[in-house]
Amino acid sequence: MKKDLVMQSNIEEFIEIEGKSGNKFTLRKNTYGVLVSDVNNPLSCVSVSNDSLSIDLWTGCPWQCRYCHVQGTYNDLRNEGRMLKIPQRRSNFSVKEIIDALVEHPFFTSNETIISIGTASTEPFSEGPVVESTFEIMFEFIERGLKNPFWIITKGGIPKHKKQSMAKIVQAGNPLMISICWANNPNTIEPVNNNRFRGVEEAKEAGATISWHLRPIVNEWSGSERNIEMMMLWVNKNYHNMIDSIVPGGLRWTEGIEYGLTELSGIEMPKIPKKDNVKYFSPSLWKKISKLSKELFPGVPLYQKSSCCMSKMLGTPSINLVQHLCKDECEESICPIEQRQICASYNPKKIVNEGLQKIFDKLNLDIKAIGITDNYQIMSEPSMINFTYAINQTVKKELAKGGYYERKSSG
Ligand code: SF4
Questions:
Q1: How many other CB atoms are there within 10 angstroms of residue 115's CB atom?
Q2: pLDDT (mean) for 301-329
Q3: How far apart are CA 280 and CA 218, in angstroms?
Q4: Which residue, by CA, sits nearest to atom 8 of ligand 1?
Q5: Contact (CB, 8 A) for 180 and 211
Q6: Any residues with Cβ below 6 Å from ligand 1, and which?
Q7: How far is CA 362 from CA 94, 107, 334, 402, in A?
Q8: E-strand stretches of 214-297
Q9: Confidence of residue 271 (pLDDT cuts 50, 70, 90)
Q10: How many angstroms does the Cα of residue 335 sit away from the middle of ligand 1?
Q11: How far apart, in whole angstroms, are the C-alpha atoms of residue 193 and residue 8?
Q12: Which among 61, 128, 249, 272 has the fewest CB atoms less than 10 Å away?
């Protein structure tokens, strides 16, 4: 039954572990936002990951970034509490089986839900079977005639000989966003030192949209003015015309990230606020980047929130309600006027109780809508605080769809 299936994403188990120092850490047992924790279900390979549903076939990652959030997932820690270096399949389910289950899940909407690959597990462009599986997943959607957008977040550079495949994806009507993460962190923090922009020309020619995720910038690692300036000059010199948007950002804090950095890698925790799953980015760095961006990348949007580069690509109001929930970040971003108008045209408060109830019903949630407060909080019975991140985030994404229900009812 769909209701039972949906309630499986309301299960979150935690495990306390003790680090070498004797400090205790509370980790999530399963992937953050996972749809179904039971490993005998193909949806144990799918999770709500911010603005997308992430499909994760693998566990382990060759990149081994010391701050990786996967270190907060107990079941992904294998050798002496570490992530595997060579990715292994996390289950025997095939891509077809996972997508068969996914398309039936109420959290999935054909042609709309953004699909990311490997966001909750590994580098999706790792050479060998991982990169092949990334393309296999995208082509499985295309073979089914589904035009869902894809979002690949990578530190691996664009794989060789994939220009044609990327072009086929875009020509099939599936928007493709490739977000390249590079903040020039030292190799004590990101051991793999590679050109993250390798092959970006081919991706652009194939019709992909490229965002440069200048993150994580951490004062203690990569936040010097010299480093920021060097990166922006280098990207400007070599890849200026390839970049569709720039998205700087800081490090997220979770107990798992702190566990990985301090206990597994012996690295001192940077001074960031300890607020679960919240990123910290210093305002003075934003000012610096904003100034350089205006000089070196005029006309290229600069966003504080990563969802904005996707909203811009799709031409929809903010997919994460940034214009209402994070007004300061929206206003400080450098965003084209046409996109600002699109975002401004949608106010979720217009979705009164009836619309909100339709969202709960569509998602098969036994929740009674009460309303939306002046500061855009959802009022319901039972209250949303009784539900996990996976459910709250999915409701928010539905609410952000820019009058989806209004458009439908007005034909
Ligand atoms: S208007 Fe604001 S919320 Fe919308 S895309 Fe631009 S920066 Fe993001």
A1: 23
A2: 96
A3: 9
A4: 308
A5: yes
A6: 303, 308, 311-312, 318, 322-323, 330, 333, 335, 339-340, 343
A7: 28, 9, 35, 16
A8: 245-246, 251-253, 278-280
A9: very high
A10: 6
A11: 40
A12: 128
Enter the pTM of the model.
0.95
- Among 209, 316, 337, 343, which is best to mutate for testing ligand 1, by the most ligand atoms less than 8 A from CB? 343
- Residue 352 Cα to ligand 1 midpoint, Å, equals 23
Structural element, H or E, at residue 290? helix 283-296
What whole-number distance in Å separates Cα of residue 96 and Cα of residue 18? Answer: 39
Contact between 204 and 239 (Cβ < 8 Å): no
Output the pLDDT for position 105. 97
CA 205 – CA 208 distance, rounded (Å): 7
β-pair type (82-83, 77-79): antiparallel
- 320 C-alpha vs ligand 1 centroid, how far in Å? 10
Which pair of structure tokens corresponds to residue 22?
Answer: 């004797």
- The DSSP line for 225-243 is HHHHHHHHHHHHHHHGGG-
pLDDT in tens, 220-262: 999 999 999 999 999 999 999 999 999 999 999 999 999 999 9
